[in-house]
Amino acid sequence: MVRPRQGATVVDHLEGHRGVQGRWPAPPRTLRRQQTGRWACPCERPTPGRLDHRRIVQRVPFAQVSATTLRTPSSCRKPMPSAEHEVRYEADERPPLPLTVGLGIQYAMVALGGVVLTPAILISVAGQSEAYLNWAVFAALVVSGLVTVVQSVRLGRIGAGYILIMGSTTAFLPMSVTALAEGVPGLLATLIVMSSLVQFVLGAKMALLRRVFTPTVAGTVLMLIPVSLAPIVFKKMEDVPADAPELGAPVTALVTLAAIVLVALRLSGAWRVWAPAIGLVVGGFTGLAFGIYDIERVAAAPWLGLPQFSAYPGLDLTFGSAFWALLPGFLIVTLVGAMDTLGDAIAIQRASWRQARAIDFRSIQGAINADGLGNLLSGIGGTVPNTTYGSGVAIAELTGITARSVGVCAGILFVALAFMPKLVALIVAMPGPVAGAYLAVIVALLFVFGVKILTADGLDYRKSLIVGFAFWVGLAFQFDLVYPQFLTGAWGELLGHGMTAGGITVILLSGFLDLTAARPRRLRTALSASSLAEIDGFLCRFASKARCDETMTSRLRAVAEETVHTLLANGASGTDRGLLLVARRDGKAADLEFIASGTDVNLEDQLAMLSEGVTELPNESETPLRLLRHYATSVRHQQYHDTEIVTVRVDS
């Protein structure tokens, strides 16, 4: 028999449970304050062969139950990871003006090559006019600059509120080349505008679409982008004048590739961020030596000027068969681009604060909305879509300066460069082998980024089969390896792109897996103390159906009560809030999702403060949090506009 020592506290009681059981099996109502102002553990009944809880508990005055008495044991503390770099200026701080301008120039220069080269490669490969190329580059710089500013300052629900550099994306190149080949540039503009609307829907309903918009889908499609771009990349590497030296194209491409790869592999710090730009410079001089650099274009370009407004393509509103055949591919790539934005938005949040914080999904929604705004403006402006650039996150981590004013400065510089044709011509005039080598490295990184998304999410044998099969389907359809004689007309246009075929395959297979999996149990009720009995009964029925043992059942009930009490404490008083509780079994563990209307308080941040010994919360508010930390294996709190989701995992 375990007996309490003199002056035992609530923590001693919990440690008594843990010493006997190795976990925290007490029912959720064990430590609720009684009318007497004391804490007690009136366990429902003693279990034969186990410790009689009621015989060891000590009634403790409520005033004594505080951060000092109800302390999370060190073995259970899970503090949030701290930043691995020193943040000199946080997002809401203002560095000196010279430093702001200098860093803004660095951000812009690192991304400039991608912003300018992407539309230049697209239009040259598609065989469009020189006037349209100049217009598309001009519009890309203006749109990238404006949306970079919006991302930094956050206008309402549009923008992340962090430094997110926006620029032209290569993900749309395969579909865009086909669109330009099918008709006038207005068709491409219309497709971009229509697909951008999906991002606004995704930003607004991100909480609802989180199970469709999965890392499995995004990772697979990102891996298929290099497959679709391979013909364009290798064609561009051979794009030199007819009278060029025989070794001009291969040597220039190899030198460019070597410069980018060697700098990225062997150097560190700021040099690694500049690897693509260094490769362009080295490749440009190599092309100049072989006489394939278009120096005449640079000489003819004015220092200041505007493109020909007659080159503006407008919108094609005929909505013919080509539009409907290409639209699914654009929609899928748009979703993948949103996943890229999501990853960059998470990374910049982690890099922008000295004290680690829980991820603010409202900021991510704003980043996706701003990405949609950028694509909408790109379509209206007649240029290629844009996305966030990961190079901006890398510079923020290297310098430790993440002030929003730096992002504003970089955006303004993009807009200013749009009116300087000679500086832009230095990049547009790059030889085809240089542009092809640059693009080869970029798409290779896209492939690796897709693999990272898949591995970070975890690959069991089901997901592995889905990813592998969808990838091979995309590869086969891209190169007409699967019964091409049957894929003619509209079906041929729809499935003739690897990204479209592979994307549709991974979405269908993932949906089939979800539909055939064990269905979770749901409970809709009011978020109030009076609903605790209903929630408790629901979890007892769930545990019985899932064949949970008594210990795990008790922990599930404990987790539910402490989570509900914490949500009630964080919410506005007098506000009617609904609650959707979703319970699902995952092997030997169980996941509980609490979905309610949003608040401004994040559970992960509160738990981190408790783990680190910060006691800014009232003592009474700490108690449910500390108990939740005891009972739960992990707690994740996702806050969206108007919705918050608390996901709690409980292991058996």
What would you note in describing this structure?
This protein has 23 helices and nine strands. It is α+β, with helices and mostly antiparallel strands and 652 residues long. It has three domains: 10-71, no CATH class; 97-515, no CATH class; 521-651, 2-Layer Sandwich (Heat Shock Protein 90). The strands form three sheets. A five-stranded antiparallel beta sheet has the order 5-6-7-9-8. A hairpin with a 2-residue loop joins strand 8 (634-640) and strand 9 (643-651). The longest helix has 31 residues, at 321-351. The radius of gyration is 29 Å and the shape is globular. The two termini are 25 Å apart.
Helix count, DSSP H or I runs of 4 or more residues? 23
Give the biggest sheet. 5 strands, antiparallel
Number of spatially distinct domains: 3
Question: Would you tell me the overall average pLDDT?
Answer: 77
Q: Unreliable segments (pLDDT under 50, ≥5 consecutive)?
A: 1-84, 609-620
The beta-strand count equals: 9
Q: What is Rg? A: 29 Å
Query: How much helix, percentage-wise, in residues?
Result: 55-70%
Q: Report strand %.
A: 5-15%
Terminal CA distance reads: 25 Å
Strand adjacency order, main sheet: 5-6-7-9-8
Task: Return the structural class.
Answer: alpha+beta
| Shape designation | globular
